[in-house]
Write a structure and sequence with these properties.
A: Amino acid/polyamine transporter I, GMP Synthetase, Chain A, domain 3, 3 domains, globular, B: alpha+beta, 5-stranded antiparallel sheet, 16 helices, Spore_Ger (chain B), Spore germination protein (chain B)
């Protein structure tokens, strides 16, 4: 019969390790890896995992020698006083980890899910529920983790695998460009996040091994290896996706950069508008397990060193202390920095040295109280409820929110002018349509914070950006690098505004486009979204979001191309692309030019090529591109960087060929071949001309060629690192087109 | 308490050799019993002896008593010996196999109240119990609360002896043990502990016997009372026993190694130990094909999740994380709520209460009135409330879905626990959105992970299933084909886990 014997199975043990390793490290590992090893963060994670494996092997070997609980062994061999000191050191470390985790997640939840709620309430509840789990003992914790494993880890893994499609390989390549010492430092830093492996010292006696033909330590090690492989793979996936989507700079922006990418990953299906809240909620489950683990171990060690009969008595003071330390007013970045330093110089060395020290001494010599918890939980829960009832909750009813559908931003002199387009709720319920002017709110201010404040002073509803469809920038705003930078910074820190919101540039100002709200069906926000997602995307136009502009702002050599809109009667027309470099509009491409740039970027599906249409005459032939891909080969030619740029794909002749296939197939084939040559010639000429005009004359890396060298020619990338303009000037190129027609 | 009873209502007066003393004691004990039948007779020929008959009217088969016992006593006792008269009466007068000697007045009175006839014989400090019970009962009726499309339609009855038969008919094994005891100092309710020796864990049988002996209560009237008196997790809404009215389910539990508790006067028997998984299993599952059973199981788990989560999730998403909804849906929700005077939380709680009240009223009202109430309630809630703009249509849909989902779980007590937990999640979600929702679920998970039923973790086989070395997961969310369910669940004794061996497997083994 099962009993409360604090025994866990190997499977439960493995899952505990996966949770312990992934819950916190998953959030911060991309940043740690980038900070220390840049693009070679990938190698740092692998190295960190290998170090962790070695460390785990050592710890397991030590547990084999101990033959009993680590703390008991310490008492028997090193005496009570030394055990007291060792226990205290462990408690300090676990306490620091617990405070860091509680603080970090309090911050994350506060910034993502509960913007207006007091973080102290979030933290105390996090600690209370974790304490409740800890009070139930180790067996129960193992069961919780076992159940949560499939609820948390499996969906996250699937999500991460799906997210791989959105990662830009140019952000990750080339590899092995950092100094080996940096990679080693990175490996050590990554290993810091795996340091919880030392808890095997305490958990090993709880593990029950069924197989008798394999030693217990070997079984434990094989399960630790499995756990580390799973943890390592997940960390690698997170690194690839985070850096692949945000770039190096974007990844360094926040401690928990991982969550920033969740908004940007597109999932098939589209049932859920934004899945970030859902993924964060799933992740939260793992946080409870790890914090409950910390509390459990702290109380366990405290019980041993303070000789307390019931471990649960200790949980209350522990959570109060952790809570007190977690709410010390300190910037989370500072907290992270101090914690990192503590772990690097004290935490990890102590993890390695203490068990060895105890073992050495041993060698030398040889030669529930649940009621208390329940009562405290009750008191604190009552406290929380009182606080909540006195107005700490940030609940706003759905009908009291003004869901901004679209936003237009113009610059007028020194001031920013913002237009918020609101939904027509009366029309949705089938009542008469509201006056269109009432649906458009126009506000002016020096910055966005002032504008928000003005809104709050005059509106009865809460401004909510969670369903915004499109942002339209005015021309003046786009050319003003400083103001655009401020706008992007504002959006970057406004979590509720999704980074995958579409962005457009108005031909003159944003108001022109936004004013069409009453003319287009469903409002301008929905119209622009549908225009893109139903039509434009099907004629080879790439979707561009505000996240791309933020990404461009944070990257040194990234060109972002935003569609330009022009009012046309009672709708809008896409008239080309606006080229942005580092938060500044640097060039505009006409609609025709943008087609060829799109083909050169590999997005030309369904674009029509009008052959011989130079003199505005009716084109003789029309070819529709069915699929297109581009490739670039970079090589050195007598010290000069050269590129062979090739566009290939297939197309369909839509105009200019009679249906003679039945009678004269050979003649038909010949005709198609001629059109194919003309088409390829035109594509080659146009792309070459665009390269000459934009890249050479204006010094704009229009299709981000330098970034392509990162995975095509590492030497070239290194040679021109931070000299993109020089690269563009030096680069000689040949363009080839090979579109097969039918 | 009279002088004849101790503080636990046990009769302390002894049986004596003097018949008059015994008659006096019985008279005192059964004073003001309108339905007691007592008669003193002198039987015999040359040697005579006084006897005293006691039984409760309408609890015995009178015809049988008069034909098989009284007739003999009056007409066939001529050879009455001078000694051993008690044995002579026992052998010659009573034509029944079910007779026994009773040595205490307490026992004698207990049998009388249980429907047996007691014959006191002068000169003997023991009495004769003649079992000829015949009490009115409902008989075996159709199962009403656990209806199955396929399988037996029988349900347990209030009469313990019928329930015993229903099990015996299904398990014809000498190892099927039925140990009876009485609970309740005044009700003297019979409780039968049923198990298969060699399959059930002896420690579980001992544990339930210990727990039954662990308390003294004046009376129990249903298995539900015994359940509450013997469970360990008193403050949990989740049941530690599985109650069922289906004999096939109870028999299946016995074969799996579980113990069944039958309480006299209760049509529900208790199965123990139990796990969360067992509450999602219906009898049909075993009788249907595995694909169908699996699909239905998935539906039930989904239903349970919706029951607990949907109202809380709705509040959390609508009030805190509307970004989870598609824009069209979010705007439609917002538009639907325009003009509703209550907050979403109040609206949900209001509708939940309205539904619970309808449910409760529907149960209490007689059949025809109950259906009328359903129509009126449905109209009031579903239509009038929306038309009057008291609630938004979405909340009506949410509550209706929640209510329907709750009934997909085949065990009422378990589903009711989920209904209670739902309010915790609603409150937490109302204050803290999705974070509150996660908190609520975490509390639920921690609580369930800490629960045990007679030593078996409640979350088995979703947690801790690897500990026994066998996989119980084959009969969980997915029900594997019957021929793959070769092992008994964790409830069985470790050396009795195998329950299915196919003949060709055996032959293969023999060849090897």
């Amino acid at each position: 019969m099962f009993s409360d014997n604090e025994k866990i199975s190997l499977r439960q043990f493995k899952r505990i390790i996966v949770f312990d390793l992934f819950s916190i490290s998953g959030l911060i590992i991309p940043r740690i890896a980038v900070e220390f090893a840049g693009r070679d963060g990938f190698s740092a994670i692998i190295l960190g995992t290998i170090i962790a494996l070695i460390y785990a092997a050592i710890i397991i070997l030590i547990t084999k020698k101990l033959n009993e609980n680590f703390m008991d062994y310490s008492v028997h061999n090193a005496g009570r006083f030394i055990t007291f000191i060792i226990g205290t050191l462990y408690i300090i470390k676990l306490f620091a980890c617990c405070v860091f985790a509680a603080r970090l997640f309090g911050e994350v939840i506060n910034e993502t899910l509960l913007v207006d709620t007091d973080p102290r309430i979030i933290i105390i509840l996090l600690l209370l529920i974790s304490a409740y789990a800890a009070s139930k003992g180790f067996e129960v914790r193992a069961r919780i983790v076992e159940v949560l494993y499939f609820i948390v880890i499996v969906p996250l893994l699937i999500f991460l695998i799906l997210g791989l499609r959105d990662a830009d390989i140019s952000n990750l390549m080339p590899i092995f460009t950092e100094r080996p010492l940096d990679i080693v430092k990175g490996g050590y830093a990554v290993f810091l996040t795996f340091s919880l492996l030392e808890l095997i010292l305490f958990t090993a006696p709880f593990i029950e091994v069924n197989k008798t033909n394999v030693s217990k330590e070997r079984s434990i090690f094989s399960y630790v290896v499995q756990a580390l492989i799973i943890g390592g793979i997940m960390d690698l996936l997170l690194f690839v996706i985070t850096v692949g989507i945000l770039g190096m700079e974007g990844t360094k922006e926040k401690i928990w950069s991982t969550f920033s990418i969740i908004q940007l990953i597109k999932l098939p299906g589209g049932v859920i508008q934004r899945h970030d809240a859902l993924i964060i909620s799933l992740w939260m489950f793992s946080i409870f397990t790890i914090i409950s683990g910390f509390i459990y171990y702290i109380s366990y060690i405290s019980k041993k060193i303070f000789h307390v009969s019931t471990q649960n008595y200790l949980i209350i003071p522990i959570i109060l202390l952790v809570f007190g330390a977690s709410v010390i007013p300190m910037d989370v970045e500072k907290n992270y920095e101090y914690f990192g330093k503590y772990m690097m110089f004290i935490g990890i060395p102590q993890s390695i040295l203490l068990p060895l020290f105890i073992l050495l001494i041993g060698k030398l010599r040889k030669i529930s109280n649940a009621k208390a918890v329940a009562r405290s939980v009750l008191i604190l829960a009552t406290l929380f409820t009182t606080l909540s009832l006195t107005g700490c909750g940030d609940m706003t009813e759905i009908e009291d929110r003004n869901f901004v559908q679209a936003m237009g931003i113009d610059l007028e002199g020194e001031e920013i002018k913002v237009y918020y387009v609101m939904p027509d709720l009366e029309a949705i319920t089938g009542q008469s349509t509201k006056d269109s002017e009432k649906l458009l709110i126009e506000l002016k201010g020096k910055d966005f914070f002032e504008i928000e404040e003005k809104y709050q002073l005059q509106s009865s509803k809460r401004l909510d950006f969670r369903h915004i469809k499109a942002i339209v920038l005015g021309k003046d705003m786009a050319v003003n690098s400083k103001e655009l930078d401020k706008l992007l910074f504002y959006i970057e820190n406004k979590y509720e505004l999704a980074r995958n919101t579409l962005v457009f540039l108005g031909e003159t100002d944003a108001k022109e486009i936004i004013s069409l709200n009453s003319s287009v069906s469903g409002g301008i926000g929905q119209y622009l979204e549908r225009l893109y997602r139903i039509n434009l995307i099907n004629i080879g136009k790439k979707e561009v979001s505000i996240g791309d502009l933020i990404y461009g702002k944070n990257s040194d050599n990234l060109i972002i191309k935003v569609p330009i809109l022009k009012p046309h009667e009672k709708s809008v027309e896409n008239i080309g692309l606006a080229v942005f470099n580092k938060s500044k509009l640097v060039h505009e491409l006409s609609e025709k030019e943008s087609d060829y740039i799109n083909i050169a970027s590999g997005y030309g599906k369904n674009i029509r090529i009008y052959i011989n249409d130079e003199e505005e005459k009716e084109p003789e032939y029309v070819v529709r591109i069915i699929n297109v891909s581009r490739s670039a080969e970079f090589f050195w030619d007598n010290g000069i960087p050269r590129m062979t740029f090739k566009v290939s794909g297939s197309g369909l002749v839509e105009k200019g060929i009679k249906d003679t296939a039945n009678n004269y197939p050979a003649a038909n084939d010949k005709h198609i071949h001629e059109i194919q040559n003309l088409c390829n010639k035109q594509i080659t000429e146009k792309i070459t001309k665009l390269f000459d005009n934009i890249m050479k004359e204006k010094n704009i890396d229009i299709i981000n060629l330098y970034r392509m060298t990162s995975h095509k020619n590492k030497n070239m990338w290194l040679e021109y690192e931070e000299k993109t303009e020089q690269f563009i000037q030096d680069l000689e190129y040949t363009v080839e087109a090979d579109i097969k027609l039918k | 308490m009279s002088v004849l009873h101790d503080e636990q209502n046990k009769i302390i007066a002894p049986l004596t050799r003097n018949l008059q003393e015994n008659i006096d004691a019985v008279d005192v004990l059964f004073k003001d019993w309108a339905d007691i039948v007592k008669r003193k007779l002198t039987v015999g020929g040359s040697n005579t002896v006084d006897i005293y008959f006691v039984y409760v009217d309408n609890m015995v088969d009178k015809a049988l008593l008069e034909e098989d016992t009284l007739w003999n006593l009056i007409h066939w006792m001529d050879d009455m010996p001078a000694e051993n008269q008690f044995d002579y009466i026992k052998d010659k007068a009573v034509i029944s196999a079910d007779i026994s000697d009773v040595y205490t007045l307490h026992e004698a009175v207990k049998f009388i109240m249980g429907g047996d006839t007691i014959i006191f014989v002068d000169g003997y400090d023991k009495a004769l119990k003649v079992s000829n019970r015949h009490m009115e009962n409902r008989g075996v009726q159709k199962a009403e609360n656990e209806v199955a499309v396929r399988g037996s339609k029988e349900s347990f009855s209030e009469a313990l002896f019928i329930n015993r038969v229903l099990l015996r008919r299904r398990i014809k094994d000498t190892n099927l043990k039925i140990v009876q005891t009485t609970v309740g100092t005044r009700t003297q309710t019979e409780v039968a502990i049923v198990y298969i020796e060699g399959v059930a864990k002896p420690e579980v049988v001992e544990e339930i016997q210990r727990r039954i002996k662990n308390f003294v209560v004046d009376g129990i009237f249903d298995s539900g009372m015994l359940e509450q008196l013997t469970e360990r997790n008193v403050y949990s809404p989740f049941p530690e026993f599985q109650a069922t009215e289906r004999p096939d389910k109870a028999a299946s539990g016995l074969v799996e190694g579980r113990v069944v508790l039958i309480v006299d006067n209760s049509p529900m028997v208790l199965l123990l130990p139990t796990t969360m998984n067992s509450f999602f299993q219906a009898s049909d599952d075993t009788y249907s094909r595995w694909e169908v059973a699996t699909m239905i199981r998935i539906l039930r788990f989904l239903g349970a999740f919706i029951t607990v989560a949907l109202p809380g999730l709705y509040i959390a998403v609508v009030n805190y994380q509307p970004e989870l909804l598609s824009s069209a849906l979010a705007l439609s929700f917002a538009a639907a709520r325009e003009g509703v005077p209550f907050s979403v939380v109040f609206e949900v709680i209001l509708m939940e209460f309205a539904f619970e009240m309808l449910l409760e009223a529907g149960i209490r009202l007689p059949g025809p009135m109950g259906s009328t109430l359903g129509i009126v309630g449905g109209l009031v809630i579903g239509d009038a409330a929306v038309s009057a703009n008291l609630v938004s249509p979405m909340v009506v849909i949410i509550i209706a879905m929640t209510a329907i989902s709750a009934f997909t779980v085949p065990n009422e007590a378990f589903a009711a626990a989920f209904r209670v937990i739902r309010y915790l999640i609603i409150i937490l979600s109302a204050f803290l959105g999705l974070y509150g929702f996660v908190l609520g679920f975490m509390i639920l998970l921690i609580h369930l992970a800490g629960l045990k039923s007679f030593g078996i973790p409640y979350l088995l086989p979703f947690a801790a299933s690897g500990m026994g070395g066998k996989s119980d997961g084959r009969d969980a969310i997915i029900r594997f084909p019957l021929n793959k369910l070769t092992d008994r669940p964790i409830y069985a004794k470790d050396d009795a886990r195998i329950r299915l061996v196919r003949n060709h497997d055996e032959k293969k083994k023999q060849k090897q």
